[in-house]
Amino acid sequence: MKEFFRWWMSYVLVIFFLIHGSTCKNPDKYRPDYDSLLPPPPPPLLLSPPDSFVHMPLVSGNRLLISWEHIEDAEIYEIHLIGENHPEWTIELDTNFLAQNWANIALFDKYTWKVRAYSQKWEYYTDWSKPRIFTVSHRFPPPIPLYPPGDTIFYTDSLPISINFEWSMVSGAQYYYLRATMDTTFLFEIRVTNNHETVFIEEPGIYYWQILAGSKHWEYDTGWSPAIRFTVIKNKKKI
Questions:
Q1: Which of 3, 57, 65, 175 is the most exposed place for a label (fewest CB within 10 A)?
Q2: Is the pTM of this model over 0.85?
Q3: Is cis: bond before 42, omega within 30 of 0?
Q4: Rounded to an integer, what is the distance from CA 209 to the centroid of its chain?
Q5: Within its chain, how far is the Cα of 20 from the centroid?
Q6: Order of strands across the sheet with 63-68?
Q7: Which domains occur in the chain, in start order?
Q8: What is the spatial distance between Cα 114 and Cα 89, in angstroms, rounded to a whole number?
Q9: How far is the C-alpha of 220 from the C-alpha of 222, rounded, in Å?
Q10: 3-class SS at 41?
């Protein structure tokens, strides 16, 4: 009887596996249906800040808006940053902007950044965007006036007299503003692209001049240099 029972159970098990085994799925078929995923779109276009921008948080406010193009269906954006003196790090966001606080002076540095996007509808992340650079820095000091030095006196037999103003160059500056007053009366303000400019002075008197530097990449121009005084004196005619 026991032998018959064992035989019967073996028969039942064989029949069970023959019936149900044929309906078992290949384990490989449990993987996601990759055929339904779409290729990722092009990488996001970086918007702000512009390339080579210099952020000056102690002047303008501590937060710098970092933003990029919104990608349809994107669920996650990864922003990758690396400083010249800081290790790299990656931030995951579900928005296309980051308002980063740079108040800590220890973070002042030159950074490279790039962004990519991800969606469950895509086969993978987008490529990384083309990288950009921004710098977090103090406001740059103004140029140093060189000529004419303070309290210079110009004696002339005739007017106008030409004076060649010169000042130190500021690294990264794209332009300078030269400003002069006669006593307290505004005289002129000239924009130049080098560190010298010749100006004609038409009247005798006491003058003051100063200079600042700027760049389209800087958040702020330098402040004005201290005002430098010079005097123009017309010689008296001999009788």
A1: 3
A2: no
A3: no
A4: 33
A5: 64
A6: 46-48, 63-68, 97-101
A7: 36-136 (2.60.40.10), 145-234 (2.60.40.10)
A8: 11
A9: 6
A10: coil
Q: For residue 78, what are the CA distances in angstroms to 81, 91, 115, 143?
A: 10, 6, 6, 40
Cα(44)–Cα(38) distance, rounded to whole angstroms? 17
- Residue 6: exposure state from Cβ atoms within 10 A (0-12, 13-18, ≥19): exposed
CA torsion through residues 127, 64, 139, 179, sign:
positive
Three-state DSSP string of 98-154? EEEECCCHHHCCEEEEEEEEECCCECCCCCCCCCEEEEECCCCCCCCEEECCCCEEE
Backbone angles phi, psi at 107, to 5 degrees: -90, -5
In this structure, which long-range contacts are made by residues 90-97, counting pairs with CB atoms below 8 Å and at least 24 apart in sequence?
96/44, 96/67, 96/68, 96/69, 96/70, 96/71, 97/65, 97/66, 97/67, 97/68
> What is the rounded distance in angstroms from the CA atom of residue 180 to the CA atom of residue 89?
48
